[in-house]
Amino acid sequence: MGADPAKIILPVPQEDFDWSFANSISLQSALENFSGQITYHLPSHELLQVAKFTEISLRPKNSQEPVQGPTVFTDGLGRTGKAIVTWKDGSEWQVLEDHEDGSAQLVELRAAIMASERFSQEPFNLVMDSAYAADIAQWLGHSVLKEVSNAALFHLLKTLWCAIQARVHPFYILHVRSHTNLPGFIVEGNARADKLANPMWVAPQPDTLVQAKASHGLFHKNAHTLQKQFQLMPTEACYIVESCDDCHALAAPLLAGVNPRGLRALELWQTDVTQVAKFGRFKYVHVTVDTFSSAMWASAHTGEKTHNVIAHWRQVFAILGIPFAVRTNNGPAYTSQKVRQLLHLWGMSHKFGIPHSLTGQAIVEHAHGTLKRVLQKQKRGMQGETSHSQLAKALYTINHLMVPQNSNNPVMLTHQLSLQASDETHQPRAKVQV
């Protein structure tokens, strides 16, 4: 029968054996019933004297669980030789970059060396998406190197082995799969290292459909405008508008009417007043529309008297220009002496619609509806804003963003192009009062 030895002599320090015994179930099982003596010194045999010059440790340098310290991500790309080390320092990401010629495995080893040397004086967690480099870093610390024919590989292995042997603090190795969409800091850091190593990576191109939805959510453009601006299919643009809660609840717009229209910009305007109750004391909104380009301007006032009409037109002159003629109803504000003097001063003729007819000003009535619908759609993002701010956003949307069904350009661009195409002799001339 076999018998346990009376004495076991180990050529290691006692603290290393104690650590191994506490962390190894196999060692605990083997020594469970051992009643002999364990000593820690070298026998006098000449063959074992070499141990005096060889440091032997049973305690590995790497930890089996994460350590308290920075989390470092590495990656490398063989075709470019770029080795990347990145980690988060507070709220800022830091990056180290180096170069190694050869295969992807050699570049990954270079990145592991960079991380080990950078964090040689503190514990750290090393995250790698290369199983080859992770396995080597995991086991190299308690391995014996054998020189191989690949000089570059041996140099990297030796450098990494020396860096591990020189460590005082533990480190933890974690291998993760690359190109995964799982949430979390580990995946985020690994993806960042991968992007930094890849020279072909560029910022992701924005999703056109997402952009169109965001733009509609801010300005509530119509489907035709979304289709033209973002090069969408008609069904995609219609779906965006129909799925919008603010737009879906509103009725379809009225037809623009068949009133006489100008043949170029500034040939004929229509002006009228509508009321927007939510504007309070500024509920009287004066609206002017160019009958050729459909360019519109509106201003909020406290009434619909002559001085309000004049103040509104002076704003429109500054925005759209000076027309040849303006068409209004025959209300007292438009037939007053002061209005006639203003139109005469600026060289404009005055036309009146059919008295008591709802269709005499059909184009500007359609503009009223358009303006009110845009204001209603945009009210969710304009709480607390003044009436003038709400009008400004709505008018910007109508004039600069919306594209009519019969055009490829926003109405303000159509207005400006028409002015550029007109001969200077066709432009209205303002009279000078003497």
Mean pLDDT: 82
Strand order, main sheet: write it out. Answer: 3-8-7-4-5-6
Uncertain parts:
428-434
Which of globular, elongated, flat, extended, rod-shaped describes the shape? rod-shaped
Q: Give the topology string: H per helix, E per strand.
A: EHHEEEEEHEHHEHHHHHEEEHEHEHHH
**What class would the helix/strand composition place it in?**
alpha/beta
Number of beta strands: 13
> For the CA atoms, what is the radius of gyration?
41 Å
- Biggest β-sheet: count, sense, barrel? 6 strands, mixed
Distance between the termini: 135 Å
Instruction: Indicate the proportion of strand residues.
Output: 15-25%
Question: What's the helix count?
Answer: 15
Helicity range: 25-40%
Descriptive report:
With 434 residues, this protein is α/β, with parallel strands linked by helices. The chain is built from 15 helices and 13 strands. The chain has helices at 14-23, 25-30, 104-118, 131-139, 151-165, 185-197, 208-219, 223-230, 234-242, 245-248, 306-320, 337-345, 362-377, 387-401, 411-421, and strands spanning 7-9, 37-39, 62-63, 71-77, 82-89, 92-99, 124-128, 171-175, 269-275, 284-290, 296-301, 325-328, 349-352. The strands form 3 sheets. Strands 3-8-7-4-5-6 form a 6-stranded mixed beta sheet. A 5-stranded mixed beta sheet has the order 11-10-9-12-13. A two-stranded parallel sheet has the order 1-2. β4 (71-77) and β5 form a beta hairpin. α3 (104-118) runs parallel beside α5 (151-165) and α13 (362-377) crosses α14. The termini are far apart. The relative contact order is 0.08. Mean pLDDT is 82; it is low at 428-434.
